[in-house]
Amino acid sequence: MKRIYVKEEWCLGCHLCEYNCAFANSGMTDMVKALRGKTIYPRIQVEQDENGVTYAVSCRHCKDPICVKSCIAGALSKKDGVIEIDHSKCVGCLTCVLVCPYGAVVEDGSGVAQKCELCMKNTCGSPACVKGCPNGAIVYEDRGDAE
Amino acid sequence: MKQYVIIGNGVAAAGCIEGIRSVDAEGRITVISAEKHPVYCRPLISYYLENKTDLQRMHYRGDSFYQDNHAEVIYGRTVSAIDKDAKQVTLDNGDTLSYDALCCCTGSSPFVPPMQGLETVQNKFNFMTIDDSLALEQAVTPESKVLIIGAGLIGLKCAEGLHSRVKQITVCDLAPRVLSSILDDKCAAMMQKHLEQNGISFILGTSAKEFSGNHVTMQNGTALDFDVLVLAVGVRANTALVKDAGGNVNRGIVVDDACRTSLADIYAAGDCTEYHDISSDTVKVMALMPNAYMQGHTAGVNMAGGEAVFDNAIPMNSIGFFGFHCHTAGAQPEGCEMYEESDENHIKRLFVKDDRLTGFMLLGHMHRTGIYTALIRNKTPLSSVDFDRLRIEPQLSALGSAYRDKVLKGAV
Fold first, then answer.
1. ipTM of this complex prediction, to 2 decimal places
2. Which pLDDT value is given to residue B407?
3. B371 touches chain A (CB under 8 A)
């Protein structure tokens, strides 16, 4: 299935993916109104290594998702390869944050958990981080599945 | 067609059903459920009292879970005996069920130490099941004064759940600190302060000496009146069925990495078991919901003829009260080094021994903690990562470019 992959050699470290992610999931139509003056809680995180190389990290939609197995509220599930959160069931215990080995599940600023759902539940249609990356450093493609 | 019997209907049982069905679509699964509810999220019983969830949303799986998995549930019945030679179980109504593979997911029961005069208390409750929560909901009023015995995870979640429904909550514990099984003195003190700021009172380092109706006298002389008593001292694994059948049992049912008991074709999973904690290299009862699911799933796969192991279990807890969270995992072995960062509102303590992260306690700031948890779980040599950067902030960038390429450029 298609997933989000990064090309760190192209990443500028501009953090635009974080803003595009926060906007896409804000439910608002105006980016300025959605983000201006606000702390953003994106579902993708830009990291920088000791050599200054940058890249973005988001949910890997793993084959054997420990977040789904660990969720105490039955709110996380995997459907058609995509790991999603039922926000009506999440109680904000943050067990998923405790167990995700990639640090890809994060708190949303209001106390509950959120994660990349490949922009399938918002109006974006395809991942906003990929569409908005100015240097093609984030791609959405099929590289097969884990063994 | 194989016959599978699962005793218990909690999350370990749900994991077992899903594990079986990942291998065997045909076999017949029968679940024996003492509680008259489909599998629900047990830790959410306090969130129910807080109105953060409801009975429908507390279901662990969708409405058609059993139907989709072709599992039959016998509600309101318990198993009275396992006959390992005849490979059948006898229910409390005398019915018998044959099995090819059996999984014991019997959970744990509240442990109530003998306390003088306890029988004179009218309004007393445990806090383990949804029915306990519903009964407490009925028993309290905005004028209630609640006494909770036990400042562990169950007692404190109960306190949080009842907080907005009652006038006063006092929690007492023999231990000198709150959450004594998962937090050390400094971390516990910060959590206790936060709880006190939210109106919870504590009597710690002493136990109840004598009850008389709605009155208690503590060993240290403190006396208190209350209307509702909650007993949350601790739990004991329900091991009797396997023990009586001749299986190995200590504090929990002894299981291996494949969740097999010492008896042929009998598996066990969840809070009724004891198993290997790789962070401390000891065997213990770790009554934790994520582990229960993973054990149940492992048992199910093996029962159906597949191959699975759960060989990296560690204790881990994510728990928060009134918006203030803590994450703990692993162990704090003797002779470990501690890396610490703290200020008024947060503490980070990482425990390191023999080139491994063995455990941590984090309070107040929970961001990407799972990267630390994975270091414990995978026993990653710290000499192979950039721990100086990692201990400041959990990040994949400190785990080396080869790992990063594997995780971010391919499917995992």
1. 0.97
2. 94
3. yes
H-assigned helices in B163-204: 185-197
Compute the count of residue pairs across chains A and B with CB atoms less than 8 Å apart. Answer: 131
Q: CA–CA separation, B366 vs A24, rounded Å?
A: 24
Burial track A115-144 (b if 16+ CB lie within 10 A, e otherwise): bbbbbeeeebeebbbbebbeeebbbeeeee
Per CB-CB distance under 8 Å, the chain B contacts of A111 are 323
DSSP A75: -
Least CA distance to A99: which residue of chain B? B370
Residue-level length of chain A? 147
Q: In the numeric block, which tokens belong to residue A51?
A: 């050599």
Q: Measured between CB atoms, does B13 come within 8 Å of chain A?
A: no
Cβ separation B44–A100 shorter than 8 A: no
Residue of B nearest to A75 (CA): B60
Report the distance separating Cα A145 and Cα A143, nearest Å.
Answer: 7
Whether the Cβ atoms of residue B327 and residue A113 lie closer than 8 Å to each other: no
Q: Quick: pLDDT tens for B287-324.
A: 999 999 999 999 999 999 999 999 999 999 999 999 99
Pairing of strands B324-330, B79-83: unpaired
Residue B158 structure tokens: 């109960």
Residue type, B94: G
Query: Domains in chain B, start-ordered, CATH in brackets?
Result: 3-107+238-303 (3.50.50.60), 111-235 (3.50.50.60), 323-409 (3.30.390)
Domains of chain A: 1-58+116-147 (3.30.70.20), 61-115 (3.30.70.20)
User: pTM of the entire structure?
Assistant: 0.96
